[in-house]
């Protein structure tokens, strides 16, 4: 009996010791010291930002979804008159910091604005937010140790670029209080190259037809609008940190009474008959860095129509004077069959550029590469340079030049020059320089 009681006492003591150890561990964890975080929020040029909300949220890692934010544990504070903020009683662990601006007033309309953090500085260390494969972790996400007191954090916000404009009918009346889809075509410069991109945004027009769009990065832009059978396009404009754009006017090609079914059916028919190689977005000027000239494609009905459109913008049909320029044009505009400015209209066989520049470079298709151009002269006479009647007639009719596109097996050499009697519906025009619209602040 004594041995049995001793065993019971030993078991009881072990259980009590285990419970005490577990309770002590929980107590230690529960009493883990909280942390503090304080700092300053400034603009890109160093001015403090007042009355801006800062959210500090706990982050739980989900390896399948790349991280989720527990918004129930979010701490929210606001900057004071000097742009300073403070967080107290922060639970240690992985957290994410976000900034939310209040809507801004523009012409009596309050517009929500994006809040992008440019850089966060912790002492001497700078953190640059960037996009990652983990959607929620691409912002300012970091870990706070228990009991840490992080001071003098400096958060610098990106300079916000806002584009302001209005949409009018042909008669000048506003397209008011309407949801519209705007297509933005951007040409942007990178650190080592340039690139183009397109985005579509659904925006709302207010009482005067005005709209607002926040822009993430600088660049040259054109805007396209199609609305109930009507359309409008903007001229290229520049928006950057020094140029404010608040005067964009998109004027539709008709009035409210013109938005009828016949117009839509006509546009559908035109779209069906439209050559596939013609882009469905407005062209924009692209600069060739080697010569400083700017180029863009245009949709034309005839070659004379192309020349007329070029003259209206102080430009001319493209003049290609070197292999380097030829390669650049092919890379910039693709393999569509573009009309260029070379012609022998004045004197048969004497080719010249429309703008008067001398012909110093050519890129003709090799003879015999197109079976449609077979001569009808006997082989013996062709050996002495004699041309058949069909070839003579063709040469007399073919006074213009296009850059070949991929039409068939005979057009395997993309970009080569080919004589033609007509046009290709699209052309490339060129001008020596580009005047950018916009006003300095």
Structural class based on helices, strands and sheet pairing: alpha+beta
Strand order of the largest sheet: 4-1-11-8-9
Rg over alpha carbons:
34 Å
CATH class of the largest domain: Alpha Beta
Distance between the termini: 98 Å
Shape: elongated
Number of domains: 3
CATH homolog superfamily of the largest domain: Mannose-Binding Protein A, subunit A
SS element count, helices: 6
CATH topology of the largest domain: Mannose-Binding Protein A, Chain A
Helix content: 10-25%
The biggest beta sheet reads: 5 strands, mixed
**Which second-level CATH architecture of the largest domain applies?**
Roll
- List how many beta strands DSSP finds: 28
Concise overview:
The protein is of the alpha+beta class and 441 residues long. It has six helices and 28 strands.
Structure description:
By secondary structure, this protein is α+β, with helices and mostly antiparallel strands. It has three domains: 35-157, Immunoglobulin-like (Sandwich), CATH 2.60.40.1120; 161-264, Sandwich (Immunoglobulin-like); 286-431, Mannose-Binding Protein A, subunit A (Mannose-Binding Protein A, Chain A). Helix content is 17%, strand content 38%. The protein is built from six helices and 28 strands. The strands form seven sheets. It has a five-stranded mixed sheet with strand order 4-1-11-8-9, with no helix packed on it. Strands 13, 14, 16, 17 and 18 form a five-stranded antiparallel sheet that branches. A hairpin with a 2-residue loop joins strand 8 (117-122) and strand 9 (125-127). 19% of the residues are buried. Mean pLDDT is 76; it is low at 11-29, 131-138 and 407-411.
